[in-house]
């Protein structure tokens, strides 16, 4: 065991802890006036996450993968519970109230899907028919059900994350690009139809389009983006300083400790600070991809690719929306944003990566 | 899952024949990441470095914010357009003590301000020493004084313009007009009842704030809504008459020293209230201007009470006017029916006494006119019993006794009228001379006006018109007939009876030579509901005066005084007040014969 632990990816661990520290500092700056307990909670989440990561490192990811169907089923059940009993918070019911905690099954579902797809694609690979259209179609089934349940919450961001994970894992798993392309096309068609039939709710439509022209609606959906841009823009090279960002401290940006955490960093720490944060995030991705490349086991590689894909889309969406590159979609920045469920799940994901890295070579006795 | 796959040659499509991707595909993913990273960093550079000035400027300044702009409340006018209440622009001088201390010598500033404001130097200094960024020095002072202070250009002193309610007639008509509180909110009277009509709508002025919410002077946005002026309310009151009423009541107030006094004048033909006065009273200007630097207004809650509509009391003998009307209208009593008063009698097993016993063993035989003229209680009790509980009650109900008139003033109470089912014989007898029944002045006045006005009960009202700011009429109030309470014949007969009261009876004090005046005195015991007993030695004396009574009366005056220290009857306390008012009104209407004015100048 000791030998195994010695083989852990300490660079990845350092990156993750550095990101978490960035998050704690920023959250403190954002919330020390209104709700000083937020930062304490975040530290607790990080501690919890580290513990979960430790468990995942100790466990063989291959063993964990054998439970993938159980985990997947549990997630589906939890998503049902969310739809049936959860409270309505912020116009969307994504939480299961559990005493003082609110857990977000959608976060765990991402990881469950990664494990599920990994097992499924590995099994198909062993049967040698990993590149048929049938695999693409049936694997979509695993993804579509939770994505739909999450979409009904309603949450448009997480289904997109799940679809992206699915695309990347299938691609790594050996599916033909033409098949995937067909599905992407079909998905876009479906989305267009859903858009015109009104399945996508007006507030979601607004959020999806205002990033193109935030000035149209400066008090509504465009408000977020406009204030975020002002905050980032006024950060300049070295920022306005810790606890000194006018926009951040003036509470101009809603959810700045969650989805808009990058904005706060960019305003208070400036271009340099933002670049450091982006660098750390890029390093996280690089480590995830390195693990993906190094591992010889297909399941491990698929899981690593899925996790990398999950981090990638979260980072790009979260950072991109604060700068008006992408629609404003509630997307957390891994390890930095405030939030218990996502923090624990992200640490669990890193634990899986570590587990894969540590066992990257078949141990020969 | 062996290394052989990874090392086997890739197909041109980039995919291995067995489908396992090689490291080159991971490199594609790499390049995707690099591209994304470049996009994000590029955007970051664009926003944060290249376009920095643009966003920084937004961050540092301009956020337009709307602020409410006061609208001028409407005025209250009398029936001839005299201003009874209006709003004028004043300045409130405010100071930033922290800023001022940094730039000025507080002692010098305080010395100057004390010479200009209604404050002592110490008071000013106390404000200037405060560790705050905002304080009022004095609110709502004349604009010219504020101009003088601003002309000194002290750093940290500024003014804020706001409206202040002004009452040119002071305490005259205060209970009717009402008042504003020191924070300029309508509190009482017409001011309160018509607060939404008078208020208008605040406008929105453009204002700009920086990121911290501080106002930027000189950055006012041009988009704003102008305030909508309030509407004017025109009363039925005649301010000239009101002044006479107030003066007459003041004389009674100081000479007879009652604890409460009221005088109300109504036009029985229309129901218009021509004057309304109540004692104790107050100067609404003192309330409206109370605040820092001004002494607390010497006004107690008692002073604010508008007695003619908010006080219910047992009217006593003035109620016999309604009794007589009921008697004549019901046909229960003929004009020459006689009622014997021996000074005391027994009704319902209890003795009933008449003041007549002090004169000479009772009033003896009296007809209806005599009962009224001598204000004989035993006679009145006998008449009431003859009319019967049911019919008397029905008549009083028709006259509006026991229900609020709906005059349109805050706090009106309904009075009390016992239902005939629960009335014992004693209750009926007591009602004959105005006990066991509670009325307000307005209530009684409206009822008496009806029975002398050919039986037509008019809706009493105080607001004649609501006028738009541009002068056009927004709403006009027309006289409104409530119902007919008795026949014209009854009314005509009744007026003759009332004339007799003044000419030969207890109301002689109200005689005006050359004019047919009718009236009725009243002296009532006061029931204390808390102690559940009649208050000893406490009386409410009153007088109702109707003129002229030889034709359709033009006005009815009701004067009441509670517990006067000097004088103890309606005849000697209230009648002179009513007479003084009547003389003025008759003179105004040229109903007073030439030469009489000199004779009656009291």
Explain what this protein looks like in three dimensions.
- The complex is a heterodimer of chains A (365) and B (602).
- Chain A is mainly α and 365 residues long.
- Chain A has one domain.
- Chain A is 71% helix and 2% strand.
- Chain A contains 15 helices and two strands.
- In chain A, strand 1 and strand 2 form a beta hairpin.
- The radius of gyration of chain A is 20 Å and the shape is globular.
- The two termini of chain A are 14 Å apart.
- The model of chain A has no long low-confidence stretch (mean pLDDT 81).
- By secondary structure, chain B is α+β, with helices and mostly antiparallel strands.
- Chain B has a domain of 362 residues: DD-peptidase/beta-lactamase superfamily (Beta-lactamase, 3-Layer(aba) Sandwich), CATH 3.40.710.
- Chain B is built from 24 helices and 22 strands.
- In chain B, strands 2, 3, 4, 5, 7, 17 and 18 form a seven-stranded mixed sheet that branches. In chain B, strands 9-8-22-21-20 form a five-stranded antiparallel sheet, with helices on both faces.
- In chain B, helix 11 packs antiparallel against helix 23.
- Chain B starts with a helix and ends with a helix.
- The N terminus of chain B is likely disordered.
- Chains A and B meet through helix 8, helix 11, helix 13 and helix 14 of A and helix 2 and helix 3 of B.
Oligomer: heterodimer
| Number of helical stretches of at least 4 residues of chain A | 15
Strand order of the largest sheet of chain A: 1-2
Kindly state the percentage of residues in helix of chain B.
Answer: 25-40%
Question: Biggest sheet of chain A, in brief?
Answer: 2 strands, antiparallel
Number of E-type strands of chain A: 2
Shape of chain B: elongated
**Beta-strand residue fraction of chain B:** 15-25%
Radius of gyration of chain B: 38 Å
Q: Mean pLDDT of chain B, rounded to whole units?
A: 83
Structural classification of chain B: alpha+beta
Largest interface: A-B, 49 and 39 residues
**What's the CATH architecture of one domain in chain B?**
3-Layer(aba) Sandwich
The end-to-end distance of chain A, rounded to whole angstroms, is 14 Å
């Amino acid at each position: 065991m000791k030998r195994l632990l010695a083989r852990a990816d300490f660079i990845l661990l350092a990156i993750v802890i550095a990101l978490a520290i960035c998050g704690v500092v920023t959250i403190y700056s954002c919330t020390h006036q209104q709700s000083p307990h937020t930062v304490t909670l975040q530290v607790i989440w990080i501690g919890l996450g580290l513990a979960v990561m430790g468990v995942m490192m100790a466990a063989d990811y291959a063993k964990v993968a054998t439970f993938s169907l159980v985990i997947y089923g549990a997630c589906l059940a939890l998503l049902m519970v969310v739809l049936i009993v959860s409270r309505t918070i912020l116009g969307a019911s994504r939480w299961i109230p559990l005493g003082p905690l609110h857990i977000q099954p959608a976060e765990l579902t991402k990881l469950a899907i990664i494990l599920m797809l990994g097992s499924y694609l590995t099994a198909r690979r062993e049967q040698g028919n990993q590149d048929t259209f049938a695999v693409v179609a049936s694997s979509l089934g695993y993804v579509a059900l939770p994505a739909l349940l999450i979409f009904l919450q309603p949450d448009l961001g997480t289904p997109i994350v799940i679809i992206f994970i699915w695309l990347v894992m299938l691609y790594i798993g050996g599916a033909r690009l033409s098949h995937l392309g067909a599905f992407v096309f079909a998905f876009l068609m479906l989305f267009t139809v859903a858009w015109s039939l009104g399945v996508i709710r007006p507030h979601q439509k607004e959020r999806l389009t205002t990033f193109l022209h935030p000035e149209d609606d400066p008090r509504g959906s465009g408000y977020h983006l406009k204030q975020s841009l002002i905050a980032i823009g006024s950060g300049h090279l070295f920022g306005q300083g810790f606890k000194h960002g006018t926009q951040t401290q003036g509470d101009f940006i809603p959810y700045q400790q969650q989805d808009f955490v990058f904005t706060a960093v960019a305003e208070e720490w400036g271009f340099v600070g933002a670049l450091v944060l982006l660098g750390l995030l890029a390093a996280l991705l690089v480590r995830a991809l390195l693990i993906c490349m190094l591992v010889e086991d297909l399941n491990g590689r698929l899981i690593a690719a899925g996790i990398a894909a999950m981090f990638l889309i979260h980072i790009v969406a979260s950072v991109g929306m604060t700068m008006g590159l992408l629609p404003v979609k509630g997307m957390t920045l891994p390890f930095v944003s405030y939030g218990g469920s996502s923090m624990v799940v992200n640490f669990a994901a890193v634990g899986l990566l570590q587990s894969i890295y540590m066992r990257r070579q078949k141990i020969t006795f | 899952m062996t290394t052989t796959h990874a090392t086997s040659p890739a197909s041109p499509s980039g995919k291995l024949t067995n489908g396992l991707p090689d490291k080159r595909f991971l490199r594609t993913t790499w390049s995707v990441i690099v591209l994304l990273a470049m996009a994000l960093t590029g955007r970051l550079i664009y926003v944060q470095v290249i376009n920095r000035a643009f966003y920084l400027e937004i961050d540092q300044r301009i956020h337009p914010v709307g602020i409410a702009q006061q609208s001028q409340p409407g005025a209250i006018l009398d029936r001839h357009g005299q201003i009874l209440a209006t709003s004028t622009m004043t300045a409130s001088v405010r100071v930033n003590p922290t800023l001022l201390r940094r730039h000025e010598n507080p002692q010098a500033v305080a010395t100057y301000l004390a010479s200009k404001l209604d404050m002592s130097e110490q008071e000013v200094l106390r404000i200037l020493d405060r560790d705050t960024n905002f304080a009022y020095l004095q609110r709502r002072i004349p604009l010219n004084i504020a101009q003088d202070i601003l002309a000194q250009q002290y750093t940290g002193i500024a003014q804020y313009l706001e409206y202040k309610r002004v009452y040119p007639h002071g305490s005259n008509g205060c209970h009717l007009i009402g008042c504003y509180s020191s924070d300029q909110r309508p509190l009482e009277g017409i001011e309160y009842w018509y607060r939404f009509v008078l208020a208008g709508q605040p406008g929105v002025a453009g204002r700009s704030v920086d990121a911290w919410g501080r106002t930027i002077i000189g950055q006012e946005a041009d988009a704003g809504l102008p305030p909508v002026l309030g509407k004017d309310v025109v009363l039925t009151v005649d301010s000239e008459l009101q002044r006479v009423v107030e003066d007459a009541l003041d004389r009674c107030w100081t000479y007879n020293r009652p604890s409460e006094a009221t005088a109300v004048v109504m036009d029985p033909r229309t129901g218009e209230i021509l004057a309304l006065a109540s004692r104790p009273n107050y100067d609404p200007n003192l309330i409206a201007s109370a605040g820092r630097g001004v002494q607390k207004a010497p006004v107690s809650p008692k002073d604010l009470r508008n007695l003619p509509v908010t006080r219910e009391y047992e009217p006593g003998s003035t109620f016999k006017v309604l009794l007589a009307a009921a008697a004549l209208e019901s046909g229960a009593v003929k004009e020459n029916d006689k009622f014997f008063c021996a000074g005391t009698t027994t009704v319902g097993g209890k003795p009933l006494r008449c003041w007549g016993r002090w004169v000479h063993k009772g009033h003896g035989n009296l007809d209806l006119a005599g009962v009224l003229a001598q204000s004989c209680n035993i006679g009145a009790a006998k008449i009431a019993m003859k009319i019967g509980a049911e019919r008397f009650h029905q008549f009083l109900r028709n006259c509006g006794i026991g229900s609020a008139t709906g005059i349109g003033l805050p706090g009106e109470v309904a009075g009390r009228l016992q239902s005939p089912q629960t009335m014992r014989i004693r209750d009926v007898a007591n009602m004959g001379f105005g006990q066991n029944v509670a009325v307000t002045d307005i209530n009684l006045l409206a009822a008496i006006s009806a029975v002398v006005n050919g039986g037509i009960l008019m809706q009493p009202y105080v607001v004649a018109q609501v006028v738009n700011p541009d002068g056009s009429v927004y709403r006009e109030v027309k006289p409104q007939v409530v119902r007919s309470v008795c026949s014209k014949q009854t009314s005509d007969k009744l007026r003759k009876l009332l004339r007799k009261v003044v000419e030969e009876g207890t109301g002689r004090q109200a005689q005006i030579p050359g004019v047919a005046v009718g009236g009725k005195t009243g002296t009532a015991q006061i029931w204390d509901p808390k102690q559940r007993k009649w208050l000893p030695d406490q009386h409410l004396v009153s007088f109702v005066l109707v003129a002229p009574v030889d034709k359709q009366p033009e006005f009815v005056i009701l004067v009441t005084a509670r517990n006067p220290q000097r004088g103890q009857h309606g005849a000697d306390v209230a009648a002179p007040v009513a007479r003084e008012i009547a003389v003025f009104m008759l003179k105004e209407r040229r109903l007073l014969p030439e030469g009489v004015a000199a004779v009656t100048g009291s």
